[in-house]
Amino acid sequence: MSRPVVDHTNSGQQSVNVIYLDNNATTATDPRVCKAVADAMARGPANASSQHQLGMSARHQLDQSLAVIGEVLGSDLTRVDAARLIVTSGGTEANNLALNGIGDPTAPIVVSRIEHPSVLALAESMERSGRLVGWLDVDSHGVVRLDSLAELFANLPTLPALVSVMSANNETGVIQPIADIAAACHQAGVPLHVDATQSVGKVEINLSSLGADAVTITPHKLHGPAGIGFLWLRSGLEIRPSLRGGEQQLLTRPGTEPVAMVAGAAEAVRLAVGELSKSAEHMNRLRDRFECGLLDRLGEQAIVIHGRQVSRLPSTTCVSFLGHDRQQLLMSLDLAGIACSSGSACSSGSSPPSHVLMAMGCHRDEVQSVIRFGVSKFSTAVEIDHSLDRICRLILGR
Ligand code: PLP
Questions:
Q1: Of these residues, 292, 318, 340, 346, which one is catalytic?
Q2: Which of 87, 96, 116 for mutating ligand 1's site (highest number of atoms within 8 Å of CB)?
Q3: DSSP letter, residue 129
Q4: What single-letter DSSP state applies at residue 324?
Q5: Which of 23, 92, 205 to mutate to test the pocket of ligand 1 (most atoms within 8 A of CB)?
Q6: Which residues of the chain have pLDDT under 70?
Q7: H or E segment at 251?
Q8: pLDDT, tens digit, for every residue of 8-54?
């Protein structure tokens, strides 16, 4: 997915091709997804709540798209008393809906210290408003510690309303022990929300057997459209709405459903799951080629690759270039035609130091010099080799 850089400076310098290695922030939309959205839009006005034939047709299309997402992710949504998929504006809203809407709002809530800002900032704001928040610690590899969960269950004054843990971290790619966390939650009778934003399309996810009560899904991370997301709820789980308005989605999330975007999301999830083994193998190969190239050329003393000793997504490299400043590096890499990030995309504007690396107990120099790279199914070996040339030239100063 190389793109020519637009030369904003008008300096007449030759432009370089941009190599997109920021696929944890968002991904290029798969052309087949663009077609699914365009086809759905071309069908005409589509308000799934309208009572005329066009409305009923839109409703049918919406239900079909949702059923496809459920089916490919292992959850039959068509049964009576089935699990539900609530359409939201994205992962951020789905996470907010889960944390605000599940369980007793006066009971404590438990979240891990490495969650995405859409969970962390909300938990911090709840804490400021007087709600008790239990913070789950991680080990030095970035894996949530089960003993920290047991300690919180034992020491909080009442059992929490909800535990929220992501399935894989967006900065390090480190996969979390969701099965063990789910077992502990269920034994205690506490619902579990899992932010699976980074996992779908990269590792296998089965909604029915994950052990979660609620799961966040975000199609723009898997070559689908941005501006749409889902909160999956297991059968029978009650949720309070965050928004007030019409009666759509059984009052849990009012607003006209984006039928065409849901069609695109369904196509994206269908393709991501159907092509998973091929694309995961491809990403894994490129990620390893990238990391081995960095280690070979820069030397083991010069860089730290985080989470390398534990289970990680096949796509993500989180690397500290010791002695360098991440902000300056990011700018230089951008000028060199490499799109990457120094943390989660939401914070790349202001870019505070990574809360994830800090929770892992990383040394200050590691936090100061960290850059995140993410490949996708569209990345190529040639792009990786060109990236290595550009990065190593920058780091080595020649
Ligand atoms: N959760 C995780 C783990 C993410 O990586 C992101 C996006 O970066 C989100 C939630 C937010 O998703 P969205 O951009 O759809 O609001």
A1: 346
A2: 116
A3: T
A4: S
A5: 92
A6: 1-16, 343-350
A7: none
A8: 333 444 456 999 999 999 999 999 999 999 999 999 999 999 999 99
330 vs 73, 120, 315, 339, 343, CA distance in Å?
A: 36, 24, 19, 8, 11
pTM of this prediction?
0.94
Instruction: Give the model's pLDDT for residue 251.
Output: 87
Say if CB 198 and CB 181 are below 8 A apart.
no
**Lookup: tokens for 195:** 């932010």
Q: Cα of 192 to ligand 1 centre, how many Å?
A: 18
CA distances from 294 to 67, 82, 290, 316, 392 (A): 43, 48, 6, 14, 7
* pLDDT per position as a tens digit, 299-354: 999 999 999 999 999 999 999 999 999 999 999 999 999 999 986 554 445 578 99
Q: In what order do the strands lie in the sheet with 338-339?
A: 3-4, 17-20, 338-339
346 is catalytic: yes
3-state helix, strand, coil in the chain (%, to 5): 40, 15, 45
